Every structure is written in C-alpha cells, then in structure tokens.
Amino acid sequence: MMTKKVAVVTGSAGGLGRGIAERLLKDGFSVMIHDINKEALTKTESELKDLGDVASFVGDVSKKEDQEALVAATVEKFGQLNVFVNNAGVEAVTPFMDIDDKELERTFKINVFGTVYGTQAAAAQFIKQGTSGKIINACSIAGHEAYEVLGTYSASKHAVKAFTHVAAKELASKHITVNAYCPGVAKTKMWDRIDEEMVKADPSLKPGEPFAKFSGEIALGRYETPTDVANLVHFLASEDSDYITGQAILVDGGLVYN
Ligand SMILES: NC(=O)C1=CN([C@@H]2O[C@H](COP(=O)(O)OP(=O)(O)OC[C@H]3O[C@@H](n4cnc5c(N)ncnc54)[C@H](O)[C@@H]3O)[C@@H](O)[C@H]2O)C=CC1
Ligand SMILES: CC(=O)C(C)=O
C-alpha cells in the first residue's frame, strides 16, 4: 500500500491557507492545518474532516520553537512530512513617514522570520527522513512590485522572495525544492483590513474603493479566489513541479508582469 503524502499549511484557519488545505486534502494528502487562532482553527478542522485525513496544531510562525513543534506533531500524527506551505502572513498599511519599530518588528517577525523558521524546520525533517521535500512560500505581487502605504509589507514579501531563491540554491543538493506563490488581490479578511486601513490613510476614499481600485486593474477582470491560489499550490506540491525550484510565481489574473 502506498503511504499518503503529508502536508502542513500554516495560517490555514481561513483565507488562502484554508483553500490550499482543502485542495491538498482533495489531492489525497494528509494535512496538518495550523494557525495562531485556536477557535477558528478548531472550527475549520471540523469543517474539513469529511475531505480526508486532517489534524490541527496551534502555533505562532514567528516562534522558532513553535515551528519545530509543528513539524514534530505532524510527523507524530502522520508518520512523515513531504510538503510544507509557509502561508501565514500579516499585512501592514502605513504611510512611509509613519512606519515605526512596532510595525517593522511584527511584520518581519511573522512574514520573514516565520518563513525562515518554517523552511528550516521542514528541511531538517526532510534531511532526517532522507527524502526529497517541497517547501512552498506565500509571497505576493508586493514581492515583485512596491506599493504606496504598503512599504513594510512589500519589503517583507521581497525578503520572502529572496529567501525562496537562496534556500532553493542551498537545499537543491538534498532534493528539496523551494518555490513561492505570489497572489494578487484576493477578497480575504486580509484585504478587508487593508481596505479599512487605506481609507484611514486617505479620507478621500470610501470603504471598498481601495479594493475596487486594485482589483479593477486585473486583466482577467475579476478578483482572486482561494481556489485560484490553491490551483498553483496543488501544482507546486505535486510531482509535476519536480524540476522547478527557486521560483516566485505570480498568480494574479494579470496584474504584475515581470
Ligand atoms: N489576500 C490577498 O490578496 C493576498 C495574500 N497574500 C499572502 O497570502 C497569505 C495568506 O493571506 P490571506 O489568507 O489573505 O490572509 P488572512 O489574514 O485572511 O489569513 C491569514 C491567517 O494566518 C493566521 N496568522 C496570522 N499570524 C499568524 C502567526 N503569527 N502564526 C500563525 N498563524 C498566523 C491568521 O490567524 C489567519 O487565519 C499571506 O502570507 C498573505 O501575505 C499575498 C498576496 C495577496
Ligand atoms: C495583500 C497583498 O499581498 C497585496 C496588496 O499585494
């Protein structure tokens, strides 16, 4: 009997992470969902359980020990690890001159330190197993372009892209691939908060206008859904992507071209 492959998706109580977890369950993976929000995570786990083997783990990606514990709990529950999706992330919406220590520290601790710690914990497990493995990071259009009032967030996603390239180069000899998905404008709770903050930063804007402006520029004419993102992560988690590493792939409906 073939053993089922095992995936971890961080920050998967809702939003894009949940969509990715759903797709990987449908693909036949055993999936460890994970989030800092215990209540939402428990609810999501019960909603996903009919799709396949799902378990949950509460943790904070910005804490190295939590990331290591997440990998250990996954291996204890499902016997191995094959795919690790560093999905959890937070936004920061602030005019450049008002960016402060608190925002820089929070955003970089979660988006950048979290991705590094998750990659290290997953790669250590792949090496221990003596198997190949796939690490898949959440980048963004903001990791390719830089957007006004999203300076801290854009810088953090550029750092995620750089770490994706470097980890891919260093881990290739161990048959570990490292890639990133770069969504555009998806209507999750993150964009609800971005919209609210952009309106606060520019009172001439009405609620909903920032989201409408960003999504109005998408060539394919609609905003992104978690399924759009999950379709790419499904590919990056599959054997069909075995010869791809170090790439930060845009999945944005035609918004950023580089
Ligand atoms: N929504 C969008 O349009 C885009 C999102 N992204 C990226 O995709 C990823 C997912 O975004 P969304 O689903 O939209 O966000 P979201 O805010 O809707 O969901 C993020 C999830 O991560 C969890 N989380 C936050 N901090 C955490 C921490 N320290 N440890 C563990 N879990 C934590 C939250 O509780 C939440 O369940 C993020 O990395 C984001 O930067 C990238 C481009 C566009
Ligand atoms: C949320 C996000 O990643 C943006 C605005 O690019």
Provide an overview of this structure.
InterPro entries: 23BDH, NAD(P)-bd_dom_sf, Sc_DH/Rdtase_CS, SDR_fam. The active site is at residue 153. Catalyzes the irreversible reduction of 2,3-butanediol to (S)-acetoin in the presence of NADH. Keywords: NAD, Oxidoreductase. Its EC number is 1.1.1.304. By secondary structure, this protein is of the alpha/beta class. It folds into 2 domains: 6-184 and 225-250, NAD(P)-binding Rossmann-like Domain (Rossmann fold), CATH 3.40.50; 186-223, no CATH class. 47% of the residues lie in helices and 14% in strands. It is built from 8 helices and 7 strands, in the order E-H-E-H-E-H-E-H-E-H-E-H-H-H-E. Strands 3-2-1-4-5-6-7 form a 7-stranded parallel sheet, with helices on both faces. Helix 2 (38-48) links the parallel strand 2 and strand 3 (54-58). Helix 1 packs across helix 8 (226-237). The longest helix is centred in the middle third of the chain and has 29 residues, at 101-129. The protein is globular and about 60 Å long. Bound molecules: 1,4-dihydronicotinamide adenine dinucleotide and butane-2,3-dione. Residues 91, 140-142, 150, 190, 194 line the site of butane-2,3-dione (BUO).
Sheet with most strands: strand arrangement: 3-2-1-4-5-6-7
**Gross CATH architecture of the largest domain:** 3-Layer(aba) Sandwich
CATH class descriptor name of the largest domain: Alpha Beta
Order of helices and strands: EHEHEHEHEHEHHHE
**What structural category arises from helix and sheet content?**
alpha/beta
Instruction: Provide the list of bound ligands, each named once.
Output: 1,4-dihydronicotinamide adenine dinucleotide, butane-2,3-dione
Largest β sheet strand count, sense and barrel closure: 7 strands, parallel
The helical percent reads 40-55%
So what's the overall shape? globular
- Supply the number of structural domains: 2
Kindly state the mean pLDDT as a whole number?
Answer: 98
Please give the number of β-strands: 7
The CATH superfamily of the largest domain bears the name: NAD(P)-binding Rossmann-like Domain
CATH topology group of the largest domain: Rossmann fold
- Pick out the low-confidence regions: none
Helical run tally:
8
